[in-house]
Amino acid sequence: MKRLVSGIKPTGELHLGNYLGAIKQFVDLQNDYDCFFFIADYHALTIRPTAKDLSYLTRHVAAMLIACGVDPKNTTYFLQSDISEHTELAWILSNFVSMGALNRMTQYKEKSDRHGQNAGLFTYPVLMAADVLLYDAEVVPVGDDQVQHLELARELVRSFNAHAEKTFIEPKPLLNTGARIMALNDPKHKMSKSIPGSAITLLDDETAVTQTIKRAVTDSDPGAKEMSPAVKNLFTILEGIGNRETYLRLENQYKDGTLRYSELKEQLIDDVIAFLGPIQKTYHALLKDEDALVQILEEGRKKAQPIAAETLAKAKKALGLIVG
Ligand code: ADP
Predict the structure, then answer these.
(1) Which residue ranges does the UniProt annotation give for the motif 'KMSKS' region (predicted)?
(2) Cβ(67) to ligand 1 under 6 A?
(3) Mind listing the domains of the chain with CATH numbers?
């Protein structure tokens, strides 16, 4: 099986957009690839969360991915900061990338406008390159916004391999096929924790789910030929988490012009609640026993670290550093 590496940052409570756009893919990919999934807590530092938030969100994301179906037995599932080789390799790699190349990263421009121009945010793509190169990743799942970063990682490989002996392989992008979920109250923007009323988090209770969906934007023309982005978004969520037959029935009703949006919303409320129930149950059970979660991450560390250590030693030797 080809090796695949991907991380998720603990920067917010996970929502249906994260699930349908990223986590669901993780769950599917674990059967086809040798998956290394990690909680990117060092990457989360680039926006300087409070210690309390970072600590909560790291546990939240670590437990939620498992609750959503990521299987730590079938993958290598670990915490980035548990493996110091990530940051060591990032330092080494930073000597093989130009300031100009980092300056071209569009995500830095967007993120630094919001979070300030810290150097961590600027060199983030180098740490990301280290994350994947350490494990000889053959494929890396990427959304549109990560394509540029992966290309930089590939350039880094070429630059390093040209300077020293061939050490790394160039990881290939696996374009993310996940849905892009839009804000329920404003379909022009992505569903996001930072837009109030836009998201259903995976921890929302029945009241919150009901309220958010009831307030979701639709349109005034259920019979229109072209489905509006707002209604399409509701259908995308229904398709992603619900029953296929129900989805097709409602879609046909839409096509016939007989669908009432209140009916679509009622169905969506029922399906979202039914979908979240078992996930929340597993999540709370996992967090009740903190030791068990730590133990799962420790098992992942034990699997990942020897590989990381071997790659780092290889890179150091290739550069003439003395390896004990
Ligand atoms: P990032 O800054 O890495 O995008 P986020 O927490 O915003 O961090 O997202 C984590 C993952 O969830 C990413 O893979 C991202 O593409 C995906 N994601 C976030 N919001 C949405 C959304 N509204 N629809 C689909 N995917 C999303």
Answers:
(1) 190-194
(2) no
(3) 3-178+290-319 (3.40.50.620), 206-284 (1.10.240.10)
